[in-house]
Design brief:
With 128 residues, the chain is of the alpha+beta class. The chain has 2 domains: 9-79, Winged helix-like DNA-binding domain superfamily/Winged helix DNA-binding domain (Arc Repressor Mutant, subunit A), CATH 1.10.10; 84-127, no CATH class. Helix content is 57%, strand content 16%. The chain is built from 6 helices and 4 strands; from the N terminus they run αααββααββα. The protein has helices spanning 9-24, 30-37, 41-54, 70-82, 85-100, 122-127; strands at residues 57-59, 66-68, 104-110, 113-119. The protein has a two-stranded antiparallel ribbon. A two-stranded antiparallel ribbon has the order 3-4. Helix 1 (9-24) crosses helix 2 (30-37) and helix 2 crosses helix 3. The radius of gyration is 22 Å and the shape is elongated.
């Protein structure tokens, strides 16, 4: 049995707002954001104030809609830098190679030149 670590409930509750905003993919009004997160607007508002102070979200002064802020962008960029497109694409490359029974390769040109990943089809694999 895996022991579950103790967390902070208020962060998890607030995280539901961030998830709802991410699912929507566009700025949202407080009432809609709260509804999508499964909470009352009066409960959601203090979380949004705190997230705003951190820069995770910001509120458009003209429309009143909430959207992701500069800290969210910074976190996303850091995550993207760590993401290996080759590692992510490899299972799909292997599946495609198996489906079409041909060799499939992915090449990505980055700052250090090309990076590639390929998968041979089952027929080619059995010959190798």
């Amino acid at each position: 049995m895996v022991k579950q670590s103790r967390g902070i409930q208020s962060i998890e509750v607030g995280g539901q707002l961030l998830r709802a905003l991410a699912r929507a993919g566009e700025p949202m009004m407080l009432r809609d954001l709260a509804r999508e997160a499964g909470m009352a607007p009066a409960k959601a508002h203090p979380y949004l104030v705190s997230f705003s102070r951190l820069g995770l979200i910001e509120q458009d002064k003209a429309t009143g809609r909430y959207e992701f802020g500069p800290l969210a962008l910074e976190l996303g960029v850091v995550s993207l830098r760590r993401l290996s497109a080759v590692r992510v694409a490899t299972p799909q490359i292997a599946a495609l190679a198996g489906e079409i029974d041909l060799a499939v390769s992915l090449a990505i040109w980055g700052t250090h030149g090309p990076t590639s990943s390929g998968s041979r089809s089952r027929a080619i694999r059995s010959i190798s």
